[in-house]
Each structure stands twice: as C-alpha cells, then as structure tokens.
Amino acid sequence: MTIRLLIVDDHPVVRDGLRGMFAEQADIEIVGEAADGEQGLALAERERPDVVLTDLRMPRLGGARFIARLAERAPFARVLVLTTYDRDDDVLPAVAAGAVGFLLKDSPRQEVFRAVRAAAVGESVLSPSVAARLLRHVREPAPRTAELSEREHMVLTLVARGRTNKETAAALFVSETTVKTHLAHIYAKLGVCDRASAVAAAYSRGLLT
Length: 209
Fold this sequence. Notes:
Blueprint: E1 3-8, H1 12-22, E2 28-34, H2 37-47, E3 51-54, H3 63-73, E4 78-83, H4 88-97, E5 101-104, H5 109-120, E6 125-126, H6 128-139, H7 150-160, H8 165-172, H9 176-190, H10 195-204
Parallel strand pairs: 1-2, 1-3, 3-4, 4-5, 5-6
Helix pairs in contact: 2-3, 3-4, 4-10, 7-9, 7-10, 8-9, 9-10
C-alpha cells in the first residue's frame, strides 16, 4: 500500500529537504505541500492524505489549533509532528489535540520514515525527549488549583479544540470580551499566562480529557 503524505512547514528549504528524502521511499507518495495550516487544511480535504507531517509554529494557523482543525475537517488523516521545539507548551497541546507522533527535526531520516509508516497504521511514535516529558507529566501529582466554573470549563474545552476567541464567543452566544474575561480567570486559576499553557495545564491536571 502506498502511503499518501502531506507536508506542512513554513520553511521552503525544509519542504525541499523532506521531498528529497521521501523520493527514495517507494511506498510513500507526497501528495501536497503547504506553507501554513490554512493551506494544509485545504490540501488535506482535497488530497485526503493518510499522514500529515507538520511543523508546529507557522503563520496564520499552526500548532495544536491546526491539529485540532485537521481532526474535525480531515479525520481520515493521522498527524505526525516534526519540529524543532519540544517544550511542554509545544508537546502537550499537540498530543492532546490528536497528534499520533512527535519527532524533532534532528531525528535520523530512517526514524522519520519509520514514524510515517507507523502513523499510517495508527501507531504512536515519540522522540525520547518528548516521551520523557509526557511520562513526567503522567507521574507528577496534579497541583491543587481553584475549581473552574462551568462556563470557564466550556471556554477552555473550546480553546483546546483550537477555537479562536471569536469562534468560542459565537459557540457560547457571548461577546469576545466575555471570552477574554473567562480566559483571564482561567489563567489566574491555573497559574499560566497563555492559551497553550492553559490547555497543557488542564490536561496534565485532569481538568480536560
């Protein structure tokens, strides 16, 4: 079976390098390349890839938001992250949003090939540093935190699914200002300062599943 692969990365040199790498693999066919998440979504819907190999930090749409949108609009595609970043704020939201694998860009090419083949059949592949971070979060006792209100939990759930403030406000029939106020309260209760950190903290503390 030929694996249909979509590459999403905002650096042309990286895309060129990946295209050259995968040209050697008879069982992997690149069906498209995108420079950001918006292009990636459109190509995924049109080309129906088996695996989306994506960076995290990209213009317009990237990271956990892009992965969450893919899960909604192209659920047939499995997402494999290939990035330079392995901080908690990068790893946890991406995995929580639905990524089946997470590799760093210094991974050997044979490891990348194996990860794409594993992702195509639904298996998870994690670089050692990423696996260690996830294991640490599983083992760490959840810190005590103020309880989120029902509306705050709803806002955080939508944020974890990649919704913007505007989209969250529309879904809950409130104003964007109200959403921002809820987020400020969520940040204070979780001891974080941004959306990605809030989602990561919520998953690690069991507030989101």
